[in-house]
Amino acid sequence: MKTYNLALIPGDGIGVDVTDAAIEVLGAAAKDRFAFKTTTFPWSCEYYLEHGSMMPDDGVETLRGFDAIYLGAVGWPETVPDSVSLHGLLLPIRKAFNQYANIRPHRLLAGVEGPLKTEGFDILCIRENTEGEYSGAGGRVHQGKDNEVAVETSVFTRAGVERILRFGFEQARARRGLLTSVTKSNAQKYSMVFWDEVTRELAAEYPDVTVSHMHIDAMAAKMVMAPQDLDVVVASNLFGDILTDLGAAIQGGLGFAASANINPDRSAPSMFEPVHGSAPDIAGKNIANPIAAIWSVAQMLEHLGEADAAAAVLGAIETATGKGIGIRPGLNTTQEITAAVIAALEA
Ligand code: NAD
Ligand code: IPM
Ligand code: MN
């Protein structure tokens, strides 16, 4: 039986609750299939207040040897600015481990209604995860307060754009054969025109995939008006970030949206985490929906090659939601939802 070494970073707020839930479900899914060992790292805003950094200097290197990383959520803006906490932990891990494909599925689980009249949508958002608007390049120039200038530079490399689009084309090929590339090339005349060009070049290599180009503004509207027409959606780091909270909303809320930060060439561990954040407004109330976190466990199992266990976890989630468990915010506690998923796994 295989044993997986997993690094856990529960993080802040509800990140801790949903990680507990996710690992409990992982335990039930493991059963006779595989074994796993967890090492928990307390890296968080609390850790920052004590140590002056979000993780030790060798934090990333410490994670390198693990088979996968599971993260809850990071951020507690009341005590640590988000620009400090996220650039000190989550974002450097994605970058250092070349987790360039952030896979975020959006569909309605059994029993979940969502705010739209539309049903039957199944969108796979592939978000570029290591460069673009999140390059970190830029600065502020002070020449007196009235003349202050802040610059945030997006960096798009051919290698970076090509590999994320190629990843999207491969996914589209394995699904319904539709790829929507999202840009804003009518306004951003360098980076997004470049992205469109690379999309066209690659499209020639994938004649079996139908490609459409959409601007991010029109795309936001389409995701609400006709989400059933979308299949694979590829977007830059920031556009993908925004679209996937929208995707979460149409699938019933942030508590349902899973995410996998994948290093496709497996030269370093991949990281699994829900789309949502630490939710300070509901932290400590025991009402965080753990389904997004549990679905991310299924993504992790899929990546580790445990397809049966992954399918069992997804099936158990839908058995629970199909019975009405956790389908609306506040309906059930975090523990009740977790217990229902585990019961379905063990049935
Ligand atoms: P958020 O995702 O934490 O919360 C947005 C809204 O969704 C809140 O009303 C919250 O209660 C609700 N929500 C989120 N997850 C839920 C769940 N599982 N069940 C039920 N309701 C849920 O976004 P935010 O408020 O903008 O951010 C809070 C903090 O988290 C910030 O510090 C932010 O930077 C950080 N953040 C971290 C991550 C991450 O670690 N991956 C992602 C997003 C935000
Ligand atoms: C996400 C989050 C992060 C992002 C933040 C917390 C930096 O919103 O994972 O979607 O923008 O990538
Ligand atoms: Mn986000």
Explain what the structure shows.
With 347 residues, the chain is α/β, with parallel strands linked by helices. The chain folds into two domains: 1-100 and 260-347, 3-Layer(aba) Sandwich (Isopropylmalate Dehydrogenase), CATH 3.40.718.10; 115-250, 3-Layer(aba) Sandwich (Isopropylmalate Dehydrogenase), CATH 3.40.718.10. The strands form two sheets. It has a ten-stranded mixed β-sheet with strand order 2-1-3-12-11-4-5-10-8-9, with helices on both faces. It is built from twelve helices and twelve strands. The model has no long low-confidence stretch (mean pLDDT 97). The protein is globular, with a radius of gyration of 20 Å. It binds nicotinamide-adenine-dinucleotide, 3-isopropylmalic acid and manganese (II) ion.
The appropriate CATH architecture of the largest domain is 3-Layer(aba) Sandwich
- Domain tally: 2
Ranges where pLDDT stays below 50 over 5 or more residues in a row are none
- With strands numbered from the N-terminus, the spatial order across the biggest sheet is 2-1-3-12-11-4-5-10-8-9
Rounded to an integer in angstroms, the radius of gyration calculated over CA atoms is: 20 Å
**Spatial gap, N to C terminus:** 22 Å
Structural class: alpha/beta
Q: Mean pLDDT across all residues, rounded?
A: 97
CATH topology of the largest domain: Isopropylmalate Dehydrogenase
Which series of helices and strands comes N to C?
A: EHEHHEHHEEEEHEHEHEHEEHHH
Per CATH, the class of the largest domain reads Alpha Beta
Keywords: Manganese, Metal-binding, NAD, Oxidoreductase
Organism: Marinibacterium profundimaris
Protein name: D-malate dehydrogenase [decarboxylating]
GO molecular function: D-malate dehydrogenase (decarboxylating) (NAD+) activity; magnesium ion binding; NAD binding; tartrate decarboxylase activity; tartrate dehydrogenase activity
